[in-house]
Design a protein that fits this description.
- The structure is a single chain.
- It contains no helices and 17 strands.
- It has 208 residues and is mainly β.
- The strands form five sheets. It has a five-stranded antiparallel sheet, with no helix packed on it. It has a three-stranded antiparallel sheet with strand order 1-2-3, with no helix packed on it. The protein has a three-stranded antiparallel sheet with strand order 4-5-6, with no helix packed on it.
- The chain is elongated and about 85 Å long.
Length: 208
């Protein structure tokens, strides 16, 4: 059977409910529409009256895709944002514009996956740190210091894992070792006359 009508209205200030076999599927309340069952999109769901903000499933090249689209012109600075929690701007965790994707929270990559990039840059003229377990190992200092700072033991190894060069700490000061078949050691040692540089080759004494 088919009901053909141009307008459906409630009898007074009540909810309008669409049911199938006694189960509600859609409820029109005074200030919102509740969809009580899964919603399947055969085409796109348009959110705004300008037909620019859409949710759209598609199949491209055999890949099932779900697009979240903001198709406003670039000159209008279109943006897509994700929010978490209740409140104002402090709940924004991700902003996507035509130029960048900005995260306001930590980004965690699963241990079975990798974070890949050809370039890593700081956010402005700030120190870029490389940490392991919250400990800073390498710091790329800003323009004030303009240096690379190594905060731990530095060792260079070959393909077989053999040490080729290393920077170590010793009781006599900062020591640097180069291992090229035979061993060459150098270290700085302070004294009353200042700081001296020593190079040792295979324990045969100081070269200079």
């Amino acid at each position: 059977n088919t009901l053909q009508v141009n307008t459906i209205n409630t009898n007074g200030d009540n909810n309008l409910v669409f049911q199938r076999n006694g189960s509600p599927y859609m409820t029109f309340q005074s200030n919102r529409i509740d969809i009580d069952q899964p919603l399947h999109l055969a085409n796109s769901l348009t959110i705004d009256t300008a037909d620019k903000l859409t949710l759209r499933p598609s199949l491209e090249g055999g890949v099932n895709i779900f697009d979240i689209r903001n198709l406003h012109p670039i000159v209008d600075n279109p943006m897509i944002r994700f929010r978490v929690g209740d409140g104002g701007g402090e709940t924004i965790v991700c902003e996507m514009t035509n130029d960048a994707v900005a995260f306001q929270r930590n980004v965690v990559v699963g241990t079975a996956y990798e974070l890949r990039s050809n370039t890593i840059d700081s956010n402005g003229d700030a120190t870029l740190s490389i940490n392991q377990n919250n400990n800073t190992f390498i710091s790329l200092q800003g323009s004030t210091l303009n240096r690379v700072q190594i905060n731990g033991f530095l060792r260079v190894v070959d393909g077989g894992g053999s040490t080729q060069a290393q920077f170590v700490e010793s009781t006599t000061g900062n020591a640097m070792e180069f291992r090229l078949g035979n061993q060459i050691n150098s270290y700085l040692q302070g004294g009353g006359g200042g700081v001296a540089l020593y190079l040792n080759y295979n324990s045969h004494g100081n070269i200079f």
